[in-house]
C-alpha cells in the first residue's frame, strides 16, 4: 500500500507480506501484522495518530526510516534490530512491548550515522533478547520516559546518541537534566 505521493487515512492495513506501507503519508490508521525486511508496518513513510501492532521485519519491526507523531508502537518484532522502530523520528509516541533479537527492542539508531530521535515519548516494556538497548540503542532521546525495558546490557538505553531531560535508570552521567525516579504509571 502506498507510494511516495499517496495519502492513506482512516484505514486498517493488515497481514501484508511486503510490509504495510512504503512511502506516502498515513493518518488515523492501524497497521497490523504486516511483515517485510525493512519496516514491517511502515518504511520511509510519515505517520500521524496511527497504531502499529504485531508487525515484524528484519530491521524495524514497526517502522524503518519513518517519521511518526502521536503513534502507538506495540507488540512489533525485529529479527535483527529495532523492534519498535529503526532509524526513525518519533514525536509524542508510546513505544510499548516491542522485541528485537539483537539491538534496540524499542528503538534502534546507528551510532554516529543514521540517527533515531525520540521526543516526548514513553518507551516501556521493550526487550532486546541477545544484545543491548532494551528500550533504545544509540538513539537521541529528549524529554522521554525510558523505563522497565530489558536487555543483557543497557536494559533501558545503550549510549551512542544522547538522553536529555529523560526519566530513566541508571542515570546517565554525561547528559543533562535526567532523573531516575520510577514513573508513576496507573498500570504498567
Give structural notes:
- With 188 residues, the protein is an all-beta fold.
- The chain has no helices and 28 strands.
- The protein has strands spanning 7-9, 12-14, 21-22, 25-27, 30-32, 35-38, 42-43, 46-48, 51-53, 56-59, 63-64, 67-69, 72-74, 77-81, 85-86, 89-91, 94-96, 99-100, 107-108, 117-119, 122-124, 127-128, 136-137, 140-142, 145-147, 157-158, 162-164, 167-168.
- It has an 8-stranded parallel β-sheet, with no helix packed on it. The chain has an 8-stranded parallel β-sheet with strand order 2-5-9-13-17-21-25-28, with no helix packed on it. The chain has a 7-stranded parallel β-sheet with strand order 3-7-11-15-19-23-26, with no helix packed on it.
- It starts with 6 loop residues before the first strand and ends in a 20-residue tail after the last strand.
- The model has no long low-confidence stretch (mean pLDDT 94).
Amino acid at each position: 500500500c502506498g507510494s511516495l505521493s499517496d495519502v492513506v487515512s482512516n484505514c486498517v492495513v493488515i497481514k501484508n507480506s511486503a510490509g504495510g506501507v512504503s512511502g506516502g503519508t498515513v493518518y488515523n490508521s492501524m497497521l497490523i501484522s504486516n511483515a517485510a525486511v525493512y519496516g514491517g508496518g511502515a518504511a520511509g513513510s510519515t505517520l500521524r495518530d496511527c497504531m502499529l501492532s504485531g508487525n515484524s521485519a528484519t530491521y524495524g519491526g514497526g517502522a524503518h526510516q519513518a517519521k511518526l507523531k502521536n503513534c502507538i508502537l506495540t507488540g512489533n518484532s525485529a529479527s535483527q534490530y529495532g523492534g519498535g522502530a529503526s532509524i526513525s523520528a518519533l514525536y509524542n509516541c508510546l513505544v510499548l512491548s516491542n522485541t528485537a533479537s539483537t539491538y534496540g527492542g524499542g528503538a534502534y539508531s546507528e551510532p554516529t550515522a543514521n540517527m533515531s530521535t525520540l521526543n516526548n515519548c514513553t518507551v516501556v516494556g521493550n526487550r532486546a533478547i541477545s544484545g543491548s538497548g532494551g528500550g533504545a540503542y544509540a538513539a537521541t532521546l529528549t524529554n522521554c520516559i525510558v523505563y522497565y525495558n530489558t536487555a543483557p546490557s543497557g536494559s533501558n538505553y545503550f549510549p551512542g546518541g544522547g538522553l536529555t531531560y529523560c526519566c530513566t535508570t541508571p542515570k546517565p552521567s554525561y547528559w543533562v537534566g535526567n532523573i531516575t525516579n520510577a514513573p508513576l504509571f496507573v498500570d504498567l
